[in-house]
Amino acid sequence: MDRGERERVPVIEDPAWAARLLSSGGLVAIPTETVYGLAADITHREAVARIFSAKGRPTGHPLILHVADVESARRFGVLGSRAEALAMLWPGPLTMIVPATDLVPTEVTGGRDTVALRIPEHPLTLEVLRTLGGALAAPSANRFGRVSPTTAQHVVDDLGGILDPERDAILDGGPCPVGVESTIVDLTCDPPQILRPGGLPTTLVDRLLEPLDGSSTVGAAGPARASGMLPSHYAPERPVILIERENRGTLDPGATVIDRADDPIDAARHLYDDLRRADTSLDAGTDTARSQPIIVVQPDEDGGLGSAVRDRLRKAAAPRERPMTSPNG
Ligand code: TXA
Ligand code: MG
Questions:
Q1: Quick one: pLDDT at residue 320?
Q2: Which domains are assigned to the chain?
Q3: Residue 117: nearest ligand to its CA?
Q4: Which residues, other chains included, contact 254 with Cβ-Cβ below 8 Å and sequence gap of 6+?
Q5: What is the pLDDT, as a whole number, of residue 229?
Q6: Over pLDDT 70: what percentage of the chain?
Q7: Closest ligand 1 atom, CA of 182?
Q8: Does the C-beta of 138 come closer than 6 Å to ligand 1?
Q9: Taking the complete model, does pTM exceed 0.85, yes or no?
Q10: Which residue is closest in CA terms to ligand 1's atom 15?
Q11: Tens digits of residue pLDDT in 121-167
Q12: Checking DSSP bridges between strand 64-66 and strand 114-118, what pairing results, if any?
């Protein structure tokens, strides 16, 4: 059947309905403060497997476990003293990598003995998590490598024709207020490593770690360990060119320009929507339109949202290894 003819996945607002679908083995796109996630209850192996096929994501890439409270986090991960200290930043845009317990299925961790844990700060999703009492595995609800979703409509655009209208749903919790993914800190190494800058400033993490044992985080080293660490990721259809604030004056007035660089909070909140709109603003169906660059003025490096936005933009602008085809490709 043609995608257009197929029934579309329901967009719902009731967390109890979302919880029922999840506990029956369905997939639900859930709102969080960062981006929308595509969630499965980890006790349903087939549902977890469907996350990878819906996203087109390679199966070795581990998923983040979302839980309702610190007590639940302790069932799935071994929280040492550093994780216990950082847990005061939950609910919030912080993901911690810690040793996994036996309750975490290998499909979720890609066979690793570590697990990524976070308590998201969104009332609807917290309600779903409290109802279920367990853990939801949820990567961002976009096709692999593409721009993350920050509204329910973005999820409809990316996955509406891929999810199963009989079993799955999109829980609409409004636009995501932070707009970039969580900060990922790996606490299984010493000193702790920041695998991905994100919604929570790394300076806040250091402020809690330093008084504890004198440690502070370092940037990630070694081979790519988080999918967000691949050179090209978060990429729109059109090529992306980055410029610094001081070079604004040199821009061609006819160019497509995204400039929220003076306000990192605003830049983060609107980043993915701006990139998606730039893709559809021209007649993006044509090859000429697709080759027109999007010019983005970058916020300054600030250890917080400015750094997270710069990280995503660097990946959006990186040379692409795969051919760019459809928006879902
Ligand atoms: O804000 C967020 O973190 C969003 C929302 C939905 O919570 N989720 C998100 O998930 O961005 P995803 O799958 O797009 O990115 C999760 C990252 C991946 O880069 C993955 O490789 C890394 O977390 N990750 C997960 N478990 C890991 C582990 N055990 N060791 C190292 N990296 C891990
Ligand atoms: Mg992602």
A1: 79
A2: 3-171 (3.90.870.10), 183-219 (no CATH), 240-317 (no CATH)
A3: 1
A4: none
A5: 59
A6: 90
A7: 1
A8: yes
A9: yes
A10: 139
A11: 999 999 999 999 999 999 999 999 889 999 999 999 999 999 999 99
A12: parallel
Sheet holding 240-243, edge to edge: 240-243, 294-297, 256-259
pLDDT digits (tens, 9 = 90+) for 42-101: 999 999 999 999 999 988 899 999 999 999 999 999 999 999 999 999 999 999 999 999
Shortest CA distance to 95 belongs to which of 206, 199, 224? 199
Structure tokens belonging to residue 103:
């309750």
Characterise 133 by phi-psi region: left (phi > 0), alpha (psi -120 to 50), beta (else): left
Residues 6+ apart with CB under 8 A from 186: 97, 114, 192, 193, 194, 195, 220, 225
How far does the centroid of ligand 2 lie from the alpha carbon of residue 237, in Å? Answer: 16
Give yes or no for residue 116 CB within 6 A of ligand 1. Answer: yes
Closest ligand 1 atom to 116 CA: 26
Q: Give the tokens for residue 146.
A: 């593409």
Tell me which ligand sits closest to the C-alpha of residue 110.
1
Nearest Cα residue to 36 out of 165, 178, 168, 163: 178
- Residue 65 Cβ < 6 Å to ligand 1: no
DSSP helix/strand/coil, 80: coil
Tokens of 248: 């604004």
Kindly report the protein residue whose alpha carbon is nearest to atom 20 of ligand 1.
226
Closest to 200 (Cα-Cα) out of 316, 87, 63, 296? 87
Q: How far apart are alpha carbons 135 and 249 in whole angstroms?
A: 49
In this structure, what token pair is assigned to residue 213? 């044992």
pLDDT surpassing 70 at residue 292: yes
CA distances in angstroms from 327 to 74, 143, 148, listed in the order given = 39, 9, 12
SS in 3 state form for 13-78?
A: CCHHHHHHHHHCCCCEEECCCCCCEEEEECCCHHHHHHHHHHHCCCCCCCCEEECCCHHHHHHHEC
320 in contact with ligand 1, CB cutoff 6 A: no
